[in-house]
User: Which sequence fits this backbone?
């Protein structure tokens, strides 16, 4: 069982540390508002990942290959990413003096969860997790093994939320205002790219 837990810790680190839309939004908010806004997006995304994990490990991931479920969720996720990208470019081009306080008051947790839930392809990843556990154990994954995998992944993911938000907060302190605006614009552009990639994957 410890092998499954350690495997999950490692996979969780790789999954979360890979640059993506959630990191881009965490960075965009963090360079404006500091640790709190960045951490909120990370934790919200983790909550969404937990939902996909439970569905995938429960074996219901195949349901999300049905276009009637997958297409609306993916379209909603694309629209959300595109809106965030445009917002990032706008805020970089026309910064407001009260930007840090506005960022702090927004629902970063809800937004992070929506970003995760708006990508139904995550459930495909989790549907394959049972196979990964089976390959480690050399047998069909039981409930205890899947629970250990889920626990290890979430432990690693929660630790990453603190690490990621902390690094962003340190970066914020080191950047001059112009660099903050440029980084915010880059994050906005990245979010638009991720939206386009999600559309391409849907098509």
Assistant:
């Amino acid at each position: 069982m410890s092998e499954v837990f350690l495997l999950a810790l490692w996979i969780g680190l790789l999954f979360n540390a890979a640059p993506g839309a959630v990191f881009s939004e965490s960075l965009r908010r963090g360079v404006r508002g500091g640790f709190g806004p960045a951490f909120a997006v990370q934790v919200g995304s983790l909550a969404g990942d937990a939902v996909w994990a439970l569905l995938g490990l429960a074996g219901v991931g195949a349901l999300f290959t049905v276009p009637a479920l997958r297409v609306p969720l993916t379209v909603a996720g694309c629209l959300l990413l595109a809106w965030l990208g445009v917002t990032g470019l706008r805020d970089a081009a026309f910064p407001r003096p009260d930007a840090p306080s506005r960022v702090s008051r927004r629902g970063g947790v809800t937004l992070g969860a929506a970003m995760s839930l708006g990508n139904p392809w995550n459930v495909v990843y989790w549907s394959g997790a049972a196979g990964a556990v089976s390959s480690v154990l050399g047998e069909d994954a039981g409930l205890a093994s899947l629970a250990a995998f889920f626990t290890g992944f979430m432990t690693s993911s929660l630790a990453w939320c603190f690490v990621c938000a902390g690094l962003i907060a340190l970066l914020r302190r080191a950047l001059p205002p112009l660099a903050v605006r440029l980084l915010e614009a880059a994050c906005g552009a990245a979010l638009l790219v991720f939206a386009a990639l999600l559309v391409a994957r849907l098509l």
